[in-house]
Amino acid sequence: MVELNYIFTLKGLFYVLVVLGAIIMFANMVIAAYLKKRIPGGFVGKWLTIMWVFMLFFFIAEAGAFFFISSLNNIDLSYFLIGAVLFFGSIFVGIVNRFIYHLIRELEIQK
Fold first, then answer.
1. Where residue 4 falls among pLDDT bands split at 50, 70, 90?
2. Is pTM, for the whole model, over 0.85?
3. Cβ of 56: how many Cβ atoms within 10 Å?
């Protein structure tokens, strides 16, 4: 079991943020795949595919962070900063997915 004191260190926060970010990114990938099915081609479909590929790379980076962070000389601040960047990057992609969802809904209504 993980000690509560460890979670409240910068290194512990890194792991929490990366895990939460990876979960959010995976959910974003599922949402983007669903949106891509609703827009089969054209400009929006092409860019949704490109966005999904970038989400995949972002997810790989989050998953790989656990393996490569040890080479940073165990600097606690670096753990926190990397985790925060990955976490808020996942939040950003969620906002973009929400925007695209509402854009598609408005376009469907205007048909």
1. low
2. no
3. 13
